[in-house]
Amino acid sequence: MADGEAVSATAGPGADGPAGPVEHWAPGSRILWRYRENGGPHVHIARPVTVVRDDAELLAVWLAPGTECVKPVLADGTPVHLEPLATRYTKPRTVQRDRWFGTGVLKLARPGEAWSVWLFWDPGWRFKNWYVNLEEPLTRWEGGVDSEDHFLDISVHPDRSWHWRDEDEFAQAQRDRLMDPALAERVRRAGRAAVAEIRAWGSPFADGWEHWRPDPAWPVPPLPGDWDRTPAHVSS
User: Fold this and answer.
1) Burial class (CB in 10 A: 0-12, 13-18, 19+), 147
2) Would you state the pLDDT for residue 230?
3) Of 26, 82, 153, 196, which one's alpha carbon is 20 to 30 angstroms from that of 161?
4) What is the rounded distance in angstroms from the CA atom of residue 4 to the CA atom of residue 64?
5) Contact, 193 vs 178, CB < 8 A?
6) Pure H helices in the chain
């Protein structure tokens, strides 16, 4: 991808055109983790991340503190979360650049799975929680991965307790017709499957990722100017 990101050899450009989708990225590669807007084709969240692991079983990436990202805001610049729920998804929006503040996030996604798992830490690397983000299974392209957020989420705590998050937003999205009944039911099924994994304390919760630390030599990836480009090729 742009800005000099190192990718695995399978991502190299062909003789006649742009680079195609990679099979796997090497650790240390810099890619984009993006989300399309709900009910539309445009990307409204873009986060440059560094690949920690990428293979047939798992994609793990690191979102470093201070990373320049793109996020949605209302057309007048109001942060989305400050808008009352009844009009949060119907008022006109735009996007703006911002920085990712905090202690950084480790994101884990298994191929074809309708959620990703994010790990959060408090300052001093005190582990805070896992966060299950229900979403469309990731689509890979030569510059990164794309998805669409499905509103409903789950928090999982170090003592293995858990609770649903954003059930009100999930309900409002259905009222605003951002997801039809069939999609809403698929999201509920994915949530139940994630809860079964939590209750069984399966992967990735039991895999020790809370003890992982980023390579201090990794630079913070830049946000490329064409962060919203349409992928030239999409893997199957």
Assistant:
1) buried
2) 86
3) 82
4) 18
5) no
6) 85-88, 167-175, 181-200
pLDDT tens digits, one per residue of 184-223: 999 999 999 999 999 999 999 999 999 999 999 999 999 9
C-alpha–C-alpha distance, residues 46 and 214, integer Å: 21
Cβ atoms of residues 84 and 74 within 8 Å: no
Confidence of residue 22 (pLDDT cuts 50, 70, 90): low
Q: Which two tokens stand for residue 82?
A: 């400050």
How far is it, in rounded angstroms, from Cα 112 to Cα 136? 9
Give rounded-to-5 percent helix, strand, coil for the chain. 20, 35, 45
What local confidence, expressed as pLDDT, does residue 23 receive?
Answer: 85
pLDDT at residue 111, as a whole number? 96
Distance of CA 26 to the CA centre of its chain: 19
Q: How far apart are CA 48 and CA 226, in angstroms?
A: 12
Residue 7 predicted with pLDDT over 60:
no
Q: How many CB atoms lie within 10 A of CB 44?
A: 21
Is pLDDT above 50 for 180?
yes
Contact (CB, 8 A) for 120 and 107: no
Six token digits for residue 24: 């796997």
Domains of the chain are 29-207 (2.40.380.10)
